Amino acid sequence: AYRKGGYHAVRIGDPFSGGRYIAQRKLGWGQFSTVWLAYDTRTSNYVALKIQKSAQQFAQAALHEIEFLSAAADGDLANAKCVVRLIDHFKHAGPNGQHLCMVLEFLGDSLLRLIRYNRYKGLKLDKVREICRCILTGLDYLHRELGMIHSDLKPENILLCSTIDPAKDPVRSGLTPLLEKPEGNANGGGGVSTMNLIEKKLKRRAKRAVAKISERRSSMVGTLGEEASSKTERSLDGIDMRCKVVDFGNACWADKQFAEEIQTRQYRAPEVVLKSGYSFSVDMWSFGCTAFELVTGDMLFAPKEGNGYGEDEDHLALMMELLGKMPRKIAIGGARSKDYFDRHGDLKRIRRLKYWPLDRLLIDRYKLPEAEAKEFAEFLSPILEFAPEKRPTAQQCLEHPWMNVSTQNNADNVGSQMRNLQIKG
Ligand code: ADP
Ligand code: MG
């Protein structure tokens, strides 16, 4: 993919935007981009540099993402709404064409890596709560204040806030600091010759550092420390669970939508599968799937195409096995309903469903204590309502008793808070 119209090849030490940013290490990549840790010589901070593929359609997608990230940054001057901050953007000319580049605040590992790091065992409920609070804060902001739908919420697109300064803690972050601060003034005043000198020096240093870095290639950046090969238990004690929502490449305005098919398969809401139209509540569905995955380590729905039926129909069957039969009106109300449902609201090709409700699943398969399972199921079930308008908003979820337990795993506490709420209500 490193060809015309494709990715831009980056070497460690490469300068961007007139020398302001210096590439340090690859952080990740997506379909359209590679993401690099870079050093911002103007602010002496580390940043994430997202470099888009150059072809016209990718540039268009980057402009789209910049529009949504800018709107999110403009409405959140204090940078407290759990959405990744866009710091800068510019064009970079390379051998494969012009690449739009986004400069984002540097964040840590994704929740997907967190789940993997924890060996798919599921996180403690107090950790899950901290993470949920951040995601819901982000969604509440996007939905209520901006009128924006994220449309691709999933563990991969939620990043932990890095508590590690890559310059100060190179071992834990898997980084060798390539630059303390570039000598001289790389930005301005230096003129061409100084610039070249600095570049040469950088490249020499970079070469030396590459060997060291590749030794640690498997280590995780920013949050979780070294990826150990041993089978020892891993503790997440002391790791701050603050996180932020990233990847606005698929975002849309509630009143100006672009695509009918949105979201990543496993996190896709039923109204999207059935093409019945959608709104903010599709993000709430994805949030529910994500919360379940954090608690159990397993995806809530992992549909597969089977003998005589497709992925969509399997997906609908899995939903109904967990949540009960879809109300007939909803089942037959979408543009795609006729492909999957008969006029009674039963699936055409998957006839026998094994009902396994959420609280029993949490107790029987995932061995959650009964009280904890019931409380979590009480929080999650309304979010996984088939009727989109019945799902609680992010704001309502933030106010739910399950989100507001002060002592960890204290069942009595939730019980009494719920009773209080009923009395008040
Ligand atoms: P795409 O739209 O191509 O999927 P993303 O924005 O999801 O791109 O970024 C791809 C990957 O790059 C992420 O999964 C993550 O590993 C890494 N990444 C993205 N943004 C940041 C950031 N701000 N800080 C650290 N890593 C990031
Ligand atoms: Mg992504």
UniProtKB/TrEMBL annotation:
Keyword Manganese: no
Pfam families for this protein: Pkinase
Nucleotide-binding listed as a keyword: yes
GO BP, sorted A to Z: regulation of mRNA processing; spliceosomal complex assembly
Enzyme Commission designation: 2.7.11.1
Record InterPro entries: Kinase-like_dom_sf, Prot_kinase_dom, Protein_kinase_ATP_BS, Ser/Thr_kinase_AS, SRPK
Reactions the enzyme catalyzes: L-seryl-[protein] + ATP = O-phospho-L-seryl-[protein] + ADP + H(+); L-threonyl-[protein] + ATP = O-phospho-L-threonyl-[protein] + ADP + H(+)
Name of the protein described by the UniProt record: non-specific serine/threonine protein kinase
